[in-house]
Structure formats: C-alpha cells, structure tokens
Design goal:
The chain is of the alpha+beta class and about 160 residues long. About 30% of the residues lie in helices and about 35% in strands. It is globular.
Length: about 160
C-alpha cells in the first residue's frame, strides 16, 4: 500500500471514530413530530441531582449525578405526553406511563463517582433510581426502567 493511500485510510478511520463517537454522546427526545438533540454539556448545564445508591448492576455503592428525568422532559416542552419510552443504544426499550416515571425520582445520570461515563461503563447516560433511599423501587418492576446507554426518549399520547 503506498503512503498516500495509507494516509487517506488513516484519515478516514480517524473521521469515523471522531464522528461516530460524537453521535453516541447525544440524547434525542422526540414526540414523533419534533426531535430535540441534547449533548452532555447541555445536560450538565441543568440543575444536577445526586443519587448515592447500591444496584444489582455493580458491586458496592456508587454516586450518580445528572439532571432529573422530569427536568429533561420539561426542557423538551411536551406537556401532553402520557407515555414515555426509554431506548438504549442496543435497541432495548421500555415504556411506562408519564405519571409512574415522574414518581420514581429518576435522574439521567451523566457521571458515576464524579467521572463521565463511557459506553463501556454503561454510559454515556444511564437512568438511575434512588434504590437505597427508596427500597420499594429495588425490584424487577422498577429495575427495567434503569436503562443504560440511553440514547433516546420517546414521548407519546395514548
């Protein structure tokens, strides 16, 4: 392979890595008509909540921080939605009523133990519930809402 071709291939790989990872760091919110794309900087500009909790998904206690799910949905401006669907990068999705999800005190965590979460660490965004503060949430009925690698929130009316 000649030097010019090798350089072009290297540049193409660099661009793919750069732009591919950038798109994975965004969170889309949609109501089917409009879509809003949020990045980490915007999410971290909202008032931050902290949850220190245990979880079935890691050992020990960890601290998670990020805006409340309610604040993120409020930023979108949808007041008429009755159902929320949380979608992960791998296609996992779970739906629940707006009323139920707003009652869980969930946050869209952007950091674990003060550090930004990578995709490998279940980030960049993870719906976290205060399981230690609210033991009634520590069951499979609610664990299903703890979507990691969150990349989309869909708001619908029934």
């Amino acid at each position: 392979m000649n030097d010019r071709l090798r350089s072009m291939l290297g540049l193409a790989i660099l661009l793919l890595i750069t732009f591919g990872s950038a798109s994975a760091q965004t969170l889309e919110i949609t109501d089917g008509k409009e879509t809003l794309v949020l990045d980490r900087a915007l999410l971290e500009s909202f008032p931050q909540s902290v949850i220190e909790t245990t979880s079935p998904y890691y050992d020990g206690t960890a601290e998670f921080s990020g805006p409340t799910l309610a604040r993120v949905i409020e930023h979108f401006g949808s007041t008429g939605a009755s159902e929320v669907t949380l979608v992960a990068l791998n296609g996992y999705k779970v739906s629940g009523s707006m009323k139920e999800l707003m009652s869980l005190d969930a946050i869209v965590s952007t950091r674990q133990n003060g550090e930004p979460m990578s995709i490998r660490q279940r980030g960049p965004y993870w719906i976290m519930l205060p399981l230690s503060e609210r033991p009634e949430l520590d069951s499979e009925d609610f664990h299903r809402y703890m979507v990691w690698q969150l990349n989309r929130i869909e708001l619908t009316q029934e």
